[in-house]
Design a protein that fits this description.
alpha/beta, 29% strand
Length: 260
């Protein structure tokens, strides 16, 4: 967590800095003596949380937030720190995470930081989920193809079109939504080659393309089933259950998603 303190009172700045120094989750913190200096720091650095005094000369804390919005600055999670109760109303009108009244205790500031940290992490996760499809496209080769010999020809198949791969003796069967192809290759070799394209091993003789998976179904036996687009289900055996974690890494809600 990266934090910027914005306060024109040296004693308040020092007290906040001491609290931040004692927290293991604070990677970095800086201080600004007024809103103008804060704008300069925010223009060149990224922060997760802003500990912001409201009553400052030249530009108040609430006016600083308005300036950030007008300039389309990335807006950190904001905790207003104020000596006046009436400013708390203004704080919530600015959609802040919390407000803290001066004089403040270590416990009260820590409570506000915990709340701000949770929001910052949630927003980063949401941004990552939104950007994930594009990141996956960038990280993979632009035009990958699987070369297949079939009836005297060489067919070039996009790995993204393959739903699943199943071992068939000394061969593997590449299953697409509309057709399938038999290759003389081991399932282990194919699993290694297709891993960068979102395939996971769910059985000693089966791989599934995670982009086609729409449901994970737990069975009473402790095993799982994967349902893919089109309705077909594939069994996940106990030894490969850990590979399902990649499907639930970015989740919404609480509780245990996959039993150990």
């Amino acid at each position: 967590m990266r934090v910027l303190i914005v306060d024109d009172e040296p004693l308040a700045q020092t007290a906040l800095a001491n609290i931040l120094s004692a927290r293991s989750d604070v990677e970095q913190f800086d201080s600004a003596n007024d809103a103008i200096e804060a704008l300069e720091k925010l223009a060149t650095h990224s922060y997760d949380v802003l500990l912001l005094d409201i009553n400052m000369l030249d530009l108040s804390g609430t006016e600083l937030v308005d300036q950030l919005r007008k300039r389309d600055f990335p807006l950190p999670s904001i905790v207003f720190v104020t000596a006046q109760v009436e400013h708390a109303i203004a704080a919530f009108e600015k959609h802040t995470v919390d407000y803290v009244l001066k004089p403040f205790s270590n416990e009260r500031i820590s409570e506000a930081l915990d709340r701000a940290s949770r929001r910052a992490k949630g927003e980063r996760a949401a941004q990552l989920i939104e950007a994930l499809p594009q990141l996956q496209k960038v990280s993979r080769p632009q035009y990958p193809r699987i070369a297949i010999k079939a009836e005297g020809r060489i067919l070039l198949i996009n790995p993204g079109d393959v739903v699943a791969v199943k071992a068939e003796g000394n061969y593997v069967l590449l299953q697409r939504e509309s057709d399938s192809y038999l290759l003389r290759e081991s399932i282990s070799v194919v699993a290694e080659k297709l891993k960068p394209y979102g395939f996971i091993r769910i059985h000693r003789s089966a791989l599934v393309n995670t982009s086609f998976v729409i449901e994970i179904k737990p069975y009473s036996t402790g095993k799982y089933g994967l349902r893919v687009k089109g309705g077909k289900e594939y069994l996940v055996t106990h030894g490969y259950k850990k590979n399902l974690k990649s499907l639930t890494e970015f989740r919404i809600g609480s509780g245990v998603f996959l039993a150990e």
